[in-house]
Amino acid sequence: MNAEWNTFLEQADASLEHGRVAHFGQPETELGAALAGDVRCDLSHLGLIAARGPDAETFLQGQLTCDVRQIAPDRSLPGAHCTPKGRVFASFRLFRRGEAVYLELPRELLEPALSRLRKYVLRTRTMLEDASDALARMGVAGSNAAALVGAALGAVPKLTHNVITVNATYPDSVTVIRLPGPIPRFELHGAARELSAVWNTLAPNVTPVGAEPWRLLDILAGTPTIYPETIEAFVPQMLNLDLLDGISFHKGCYVGQEIVARTHYLGKLKRRMYLARVDSPA
What we know:
Blueprint: H1 3-11, E1 15-17, E2 20-23, H2 27-36, E3 39-42, E4 46-52, H3 56-61, E5 77-82, E6 88-97, E7 100-106, H4 107-118, E8 127-130, E9 136-141, H5 145-153, E10 163-166, E11 174-179, E12 185-190, H6 192-202, E13 207-209, H7 211-221, H8 257-265
Parallel strand pairs: 3-13
Antiparallel strand pairs: 1-2, 3-9, 4-7, 4-8, 5-6, 6-7, 9-12, 10-11, 11-12
């Protein structure tokens, strides 16, 4: 976690475990707030891989399922890195900030994914690095999230996957991404001092929550996430990435593309991800 952001969260009474916020003292209340209120969440449970260099876009285009050419300063997309057999090794959210393309994924999968991607760099002019501690990041969700973020920053992305940059002078800028889902949600990436100011501005009206409520909102949004336990368990279509703009069938070759395309054009998909609810006292 970014050191300055870590100190700020400790002063905000966050309960930190393994470099991430577990809760702010009331985990059950925080889960309820995520479903029925407005919440702000530290996102340090997610890691960032930064891809830089003259060939970075071309390199990622040949590795990931999405069309990396569509990742622009005003647009973010989901994507995945597959094995040659078309099985998903890692899933990401991609966005641009400054001169880099960032790949966001669970922190516990960052090192395996980074090591695997580096194997394919070879002679391309691309540098891949763990940028998780370079930026602070937070999420805001709820029925009033758009109005609250807009009031704090002066602007807000209007459509799903859209991105805006506030305070365009890098590195003091704040990157704001609008996420999919039935509950309006936004990710904010930037310097710790900038996000600390936003966090405090939201404080009177927005409940602070830990990582689990944000994961719950991911589930409700149908956002697929690969963890170490599910590496190579699915082809991308099983994760609905074809329905979420996370697969391009027109971009050309990438690792695992033949299997993914064959499944799309010739195969019959036997499994897909669905949202299910189980009522249980536990």
